[in-house]
Structure formats: structure tokens, C-alpha cells
């Protein structure tokens, strides 16, 4: 098989595959090198039964993610709405409370506190330029503090602060003290606001893929055919004049006129570059850790909670499952509860092992949905920090100082090396939408030099 | 040459060499694999003339660094005091002011502010257990905020805050917003207090090596002879039962019963591990970036500032050289001013290039020492972020959340892989002393399993 192409793409996640398609459409020959035995990166589906898929990785689309909806349509990837009928649960202070709509019943003081905070965040977020967060008028101040410090200073109620911590965990898979206020604001702007990021209906968790989100990547890869090479973990990228050699762990070398690296920044930093990367780019990759998340699934013969008027959606302070969704298939032919262990919970439960996670998950689900939840037909989970070619999800977060000190190296090409991946996106960073934007942008940059 | 040993050590910095010596003394056969063409890691000397050395890397010892002094004595590495006679300069508000002793004349309010802050920090630091910073009574709160936020909240004067920023840059080669308050406190405890870390006489900058600090590593390596293998960048570490195979970029494989990895955490994260590292260890390495520093040297025919009663020591708000030392050889046969570009200044000036750094350095030195400083016989600098096998200095810092979420993975062996390097030390982390402690500790851990 050919070892030469116009462009080599490292990573067959959505970003890399989109870049490859964009280049191919412009008549460039491409090769996509993927470390794993599969495509899709942080999108990964799993068959519970024939044609019954769950997503162990990214799974949702929501309004304003226009590139992603267009791609789904083009690839005939069918969508259906996340189940939201009925009442939701908030578990706080030792008990589960039902509520209708999106606002849990936790008193008007916390609600006011939380509402004020959202309004402030959304307003500040508007001041962060998506292409250059470091140019925000208050960038220095906002990047010098953690999001946790802002919460501490700006919110008054224990419950309101807890809600904001939950927001951080749910959206960043990290604790609010792990990233800067500037990063929180950038991300909020990038996703269109706190509520857009948080909500199911009308928000980023609105729609699911009938065949799993990974089907996007599978179909893109299918169209690329033999241009996608699996089992090719890239170890080294060597630039000599206008020629780039990409070498895999097994020693295969691919030659091209440009390379697009479409993997998370922390993993991009583990590739050997010759000549070495400039200090700013290298030190950037030392500073963008991935979040920590374990997706936990309990599968029942039917979605029994629906019979009690429950949507399956839970927010909770009970450890370690702070967030639960009804993740049943579109026809409700079985019932699936999806619980998230995120940030600190994910770290604790990653070390605790599979059996402890199963027990903890079922313990929580039983507190939320009653004894019926204790006996699923199946339990499974997926720890993204243990995936060698992801090493964390949903994506990278920027600790204090990273945006203002190193942000300019995020997309800056290094010779004939270009950077893609959802972390390099301006809109919907961290989401499928951002991955698509980044792939298109990187392809465009390559076309300008080839 | 033998490709087998009881223990393979990765990295011939002080930590690795000390570990190798400790193992050899207990009758274990060792091999030290070093990526570079030289030993010493972040210690690197440069000959200005025959037997006239400057240190491009780490260079000082100070009181309570007992292991380091003992090692210097054992290796017959001669020390001499950093020059401190005469008055120092503080450059602030557009002018240089002279002062005697250690306290610049910047008004009693800032001094009180700064003194209070030091007292508070030293007191809080005492509460951080050196073996387990995450167990500090207020660990969660202290790790949820940046050191910058603490300064903002706890200090009242602009000048006092500037002084603390200078402390952060000088000690961490990072800005105070890049690491957590908990890390600042741990580090202060680890080094014996703010003043111990900051001072020349009586502090961490007290003594210099006549033959350069790297001479420690060179002499240790000499004693190890052929056990030290240069040009052996380690790419992969494979564990099978109780056997560990270490493979270099060139494909050489070394077999041992244990491996000590004695490189900075961020670089340790770039090695391929088979089986893969546990999530906590891997995610730790994503979160410990190295600081940024460029050492700049201006060499004159004689230390002319001494003739004007100046010590050569400057603290300054003038960009980019905030800190200057007299770094002349012991006999004063020529005059050397050593200026530091640290943190944000280092990043800016790294990108700006060598000529811009020369100009900026001489501009600053002229403002501090007059026109005489504008015409050195020689200018040279060293950018540690550009060194592929260091990728930053002086060492790693812990951003918010890193200590409490991942600190326990710092020294925890993974099978037969053990971790050394100054970042794993409890006393004088980041210093030569910490490197020695870490090497001794790792060797001891290995001896317990072999």
C-alpha cells in the first residue's frame, strides 16, 4: 500500500477524518494514520444487541451545532431526541426531590444566586474573543484565578455553589478549581452560553444518534477506504524542507508535503518532533490536561422510571454519580440509565476498579429510582482516562495562565505541521461540532501552502 | 557492552546518578541511560576560558541542603560564596535605588505588607505535610486557588504584591497564577521558608561551585564509568512479570529487574509504557508543566560595579530582566552579570530570539549599572524551554488541583518502575538537594523489591 500522500493526517477522530475529506475534495491525496484498531477517537459505540447501540463516548448534538447536524444529514446518520418527558430528580440533603421543567426545587435564594451567576458568566463570556481569548479586556485578571475562586467570590449560597460545581463537572469533566475563569468564559462563549451547554432540550444534550455517534466517524472512514490506516500509532514526525516523514511505532514511514495532527494536545506532545517544536508549542502541550470521566450504564428490561412519571434525569450530591440521563434506545425496548462519574469522582472510582464502580452506581441509582434499580440486567462502564489513545475526556481544559501565556501556540502551524482536534476550535470547543470546525480549518490552512 | 543489569536508570541528572551509586554500593549492577551527549540534566556548565566556568543551569547551594554539601565534599567539588559585598539595587518606578542589606527602600507600608505576607505564608506552610501535601488541614481550599489569588486577597500594596510576584518568578520560574496556593506552601515548607528560598547569604543562593555545579554529575558519572550510556533517549519501557525492558529511540533494548525513571514528570509522560500506566499516574504527568527560564550572561573585563560599591544584585520591574546577580568567577578575574528572564518574560523573549534577548539584557543592565554595562566582551544565554530533554526549568509546578487530585501518584511505583527526580522530593523539591533525596529514596525502594 502507498506510503506517500500529499497530506498525512494523524488521528482518525472526527477532526482528522473531516480534514482528510476536505483535502480529498480539493484533489489532494491523503493518508489517515490511526493508533487504534478503530476510528472515532472519543466517539465509541457499543452494541447491546443487534442494532441497539450505546455510546461509551461522546453522544449528543444540540442546537447551533450546525456543522454536526449537516454532517449527520449528509451521512444519513439518524437522530432522535434525548428522553425528557416527565419529572426530573434532584438529590440533595439526603433525599430525592421531583420537579418539572429545568429548575429544581431548592429554594428561591439558591435559585436567585445561581441565576445571577449565570447571567454574569454569560455577559463576561461575550467579552472573550473566540479566536483570541488572550485579547479579552480582562484576560489577565480572568486567567489568574480559578473558576472555583470566582464561584467562591461571586456566589452566596451553598446550594448555588454546588450547582455551579455540577455545571463544571458536567461540562468540563473537571473540578472548578482545575481551570481558569478565562477558560470557563471562553468555553461558555464557545458553546453559546451556560444554559445552552447545560440543557438537554434546547441545549447540547438534545439529540442522540440512533446508530451511535461513532457512526459519523465510521461512515467518513468508509468513504476514505484504504486511505485510513489502523494500528498505526505515530511516534515521530520529521520535517526536512517541504517534506514531512511520519513514522509509526512499528517503524513504517509515511511521506507527505504536510501533516495534520488531529489528536488531543497532551497526546500531540508525546510525539517526537524533528526538528523539535518551538518552546511555546511544547510548553503548551505540557499544560492542557484532559478531563476525567467514566460513563456508567445500567441496562434494565424496560425504562421503569418512565412509568412513574420520571424522565430519568438526575442531578445529585450523592457520591459518585452526580448526573444521570435516560439513555434508552429510541423505541424504549429496554431501559438504560447513564450515570457520569466526572472530575474528582472519576479519579477516585478509576482507582477503585470496576466492581466498586458497579456497586457505587447501583447504590446511587437505587437512591434515585428505588429498589427496582438495584438489579440491572447488565452493568458496564468506560473509563476514558484509561484509554491510552485518549487519556481523558471530554477534552482538554486550560489551567490558569495557559490561555494568556501559551494560547497563541494552539493553532499556529509549525512548518508543515498543522493542528486540528476539537481543542483547537473556536465554536463548540470540546464537542463534535468543534472537531468538525477544526478539521475544516486545518485542511484550509494546508491547502494554502500546498 | 552489556545490555543487562539489575537496575536501569533513565536519566543521568543528579537524581539518576545518585540512585545508580546507591544501588551499586549495595552490590547491584546498574546502567544509566541518558538521552543527551552529556550528563547533568538541568546542571550544565560552560567554559568561558580554561578553568573559568559558568553555569547555564542550576548553580547554587544553601544552608540546610545537607545532602548536597556532603556530596560536594565527597566529590571534592569546591564551593565559594556568591558575591554579596556592597549595596544592592532595586529598580522601581523608573529608577534604580541603592540599599544595604536585604531590604530595599520602598517605603514602610509595602515592607510591612510584604513582611506580613511572608509571616503568613511561612506559618501556613508549616501545616503542609511534606510527604502528603494533600493531607494539609486546608488542602482543598488551598489547592482550589492560585497563588496569585492569595496575593490579591492577602496583600494590600502594589509594591508588596510586585515583590511577591518577583518571589514567584525567581523561585518557580512561573507566574503566581500558574500554580496553586497549596503548591506555593508546600514548596516554601520544602525549602525551609520564604527567606531561605529567596536569600543569597543564608539562603538558597549562598554558594557556588568553582568548577560549575555540573561537576557533581560529571564526577558521579566518572565513577560509574561505562555504566553510564550517553545518546540513549528512552522511548519505551515494557514490563513482563518481574523483567523490565527499556528501549531507546535507536532500538537498543536494555533488560533489568527494575527501572528508575529520573526525568521531569512531563518528560516521563512522553515515554511509552507497556502495559500502559494507570490513569492517575498518566493524568499526573499531563498536569506538571515545567517553568520557563532563560539565563543571560554579560561578561566584562572586570566586575566594574564592585568599584562603585555595588553587589551586582538587582531586583527590578523593568522588562524583561527582573533579577540580576554578580556571577563573576571566585577570583574576580573577569566580571559577569547574570540576569534571569523568568515566567512570562522568558516566554516572550524565547520567541523574540537571541539578538532581541541580547539587546534587552544590555538595555536593562545599562539602566541598572550605567553605560559601562552596554559593551560586554561577551553575551550568551540559555533557554531551558528549548532544551528538548528538559523542556523547561527550574522544575515542575503544580497547578490548582494537581496536588489534591493526583499527588499520590507522584512517587507511587508502577510495578517495577520507580520514580525519581527533584520533583519527587519532599525537602528542597526543585533543587539539587531534592534530586539527591529522590535518587536515594528511589534506590531504597528498588532494594526493597530486588
Structural class of chain A: alpha/beta
The number of E-state strands of chain A comes to 21
State mean pLDDT of chain A (0 to 100 scale). Answer: 97
Quaternary class = homodimer
Ranges of chain A where pLDDT stays below 50 over 5 or more residues in a row are none
User: Helicity level of chain A, as a percent range?
Assistant: 25-40%
Based on Cα principal axes, name the global outline of chain A.
Answer: globular
The greatest interface here is:
A-B, 46 and 46 residues
Q: Beta-strand level of the residues of chain A, as a percent range?
A: 15-25%
Give, in spatial order, the strands making up the sheet with the most strands of chain A: 8-7-17-18-19-16-20
Distance between the termini of chain A: 23 Å
If you compute it from the alpha carbons, what radius of gyration of chain A comes out, rounded to the nearest whole angstrom? 22 Å
Major sheet of chain A: 7 strands, mixed
Total helix count of chain A?
Answer: 15
Please outline what is shown here:
Two copies of one chain form a homodimer. The model of chain A has no long low-confidence stretch (mean pLDDT 97).
3D structure, described in words:
Two copies of one chain form a homodimer. Chain A has helices spanning 14-25, 66-74, 108-125, 139-142, 147-154, 158-172, 181-191, 194-198, 214-224, 265-268, 279-285, 344-352, 354-369, 402-406, 432-449; strands at 7-10, 30-33, 45-49, 52-55, 60-61, 79-81, 87-92, 95-99, 207-209, 228-229, 234-240, 243-248, 253-256, 258-261, 272-274, 293-300, 310-316, 323-326, 335-342, 378-383, 417-419. The first copy, chain A, is α/β, with parallel strands linked by helices. Helices cover 34% and strands 22% of the residues of chain A. Chain A is globular, with a radius of gyration of 22 Å. In chain A, the strands form five sheets. Chain A has a seven-stranded mixed sheet with strand order 8-7-17-18-19-16-20. A five-stranded parallel sheet of chain A has the order 10-2-1-14-21, with helices on one face. Chain A has a four-stranded mixed sheet with strand order 13-12-11-15, with no helix packed on it. The model of chain A has no long low-confidence stretch (mean pLDDT 97). In chain A, a hairpin with an 8-residue loop joins strand 18 (323-326) and strand 19.
Amino acid at each position: 500500500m502507498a506510503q506517500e500522500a500529499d497530506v498525512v493526517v494523524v488521528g482518525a477522530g472526527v477532526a482528522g477524518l473531516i480534514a482528510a475529506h476536505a483535502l480529498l475534495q480539493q484533489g489532494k491525496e491523503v493518508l489517515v494514520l490511526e493508533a487504534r484498531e478503530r476510528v472515532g477517537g472519543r466517539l465509541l459505540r457499543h452494541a447491546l444487541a443487534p442494532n441497539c447501540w450505546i455510546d461509551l463516548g461522546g453522544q449528543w448534538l444540540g442546537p447551533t451545532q450546525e456543522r454536526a447536524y449537516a454532517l449527520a444529514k449528509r451521512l444519513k446518520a439518524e437522530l432522535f431526541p434525548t428522553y425528557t418527558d416527565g419529572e426530573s430528580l434532584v438529590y440533595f440533603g439526603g433525599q430525592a426531590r421531583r420537579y418539572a421543567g429545568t429548575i429544581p426545587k431548592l429554594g428561591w435564594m439558591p435559585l436567585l444566586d445561581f441565576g445571577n451567576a449565570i447571567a454574569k458568566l454569560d455577559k463576561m463570556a461575550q467579552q472573550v474573543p473566540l479566536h483570541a481569548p488572550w485579547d479579552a479586556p480582562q484576560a489577565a485578571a480572568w486567567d489568574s484565578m480559578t473558576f472555583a475562586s470566582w464561584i467562591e467570590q461571586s456566589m452566596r449560597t451553598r446550594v448555588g455553589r454546588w450547582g455551579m460545581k455540577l455545571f463544571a463537572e458536567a461540562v468540563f469533566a473537571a473540578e472548578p478549581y482545575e481551570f481558569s475563569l478565562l477558560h470557563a468564559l471562553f468555553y461558555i462563549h464557545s458553546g453559546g452560553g451556560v444554559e445552552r451547554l447545560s440543557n438537554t432540550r434546547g441545549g447540547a444534550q438534545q439529540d442522540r444518534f440512533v446508530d451511535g455517534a461513532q457512526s459519523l466517524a465510521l461512515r467518513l472512514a468508509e468513504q476514505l477506504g484504504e486511505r485510513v490506516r489502523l494500528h498505526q500509532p505515530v511516534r515521530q514526525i520529521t520535517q526536512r524542507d517541504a517534506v514531512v516523514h511520519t513514522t509509526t511505532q512499528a517503524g513504517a514511514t509515511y511521506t507527505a508535503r504536510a501533516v495534520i495532527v488531529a489528536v488531543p494536545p497532551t497526546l500531540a506532545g508525546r510525539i517526537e518532533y524533528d526538528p523539535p517544536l518551538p518552546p511555546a508549542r511544547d510548553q503548551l502541550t505540557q499544560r492542557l490536561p484532559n478531563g476525567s470521566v467514566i460513563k456508567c450504564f445500567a441496562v434494565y428490561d424496560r425504562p421503569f422510571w418512565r412509568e412513574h412519571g420520571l424522565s430519568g434525569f438526575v442531578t445529585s450530591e450523592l457520591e459518585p454519580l452526580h448526573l444521570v440521563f435516560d439513555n434508552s434506545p429510541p423505541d424504549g425496548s429496554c431501559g438504560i440509565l447513564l450515570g457520569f462519574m466526572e472530575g474528582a469522582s472519576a479519579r477516585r472510582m478509576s482507582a477503585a476498579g470496576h466492581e466498586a464502580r458497579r456497586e457505587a452506581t447501583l447504590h446511587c441509582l437505587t437512591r434515585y429510582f428505588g429498589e427496582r434499580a438495584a438489579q440491572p440486567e447488565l452493568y458496564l462502564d468506560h473509563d476514558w482516562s484509561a484509554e491510552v489513545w485518549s487519556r481523558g475526556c471530554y477534552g482538554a481544559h486550560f489551567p490558569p495562565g495557559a490561555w494568556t501565556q501559551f494560547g497563541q501556540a494552539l493553532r499556529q502551524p509549525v512548518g508543515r505541521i498543522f493542528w486540528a482536534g476539537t481543542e483547537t476550535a473556536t465554536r463548540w470547543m470540546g464537542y463534535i461540532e468543534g472537531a468538525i470546525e477544526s478539521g475544516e480549518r486545518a485542511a484550509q490552512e494546508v491547502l494554502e501552502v500546498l
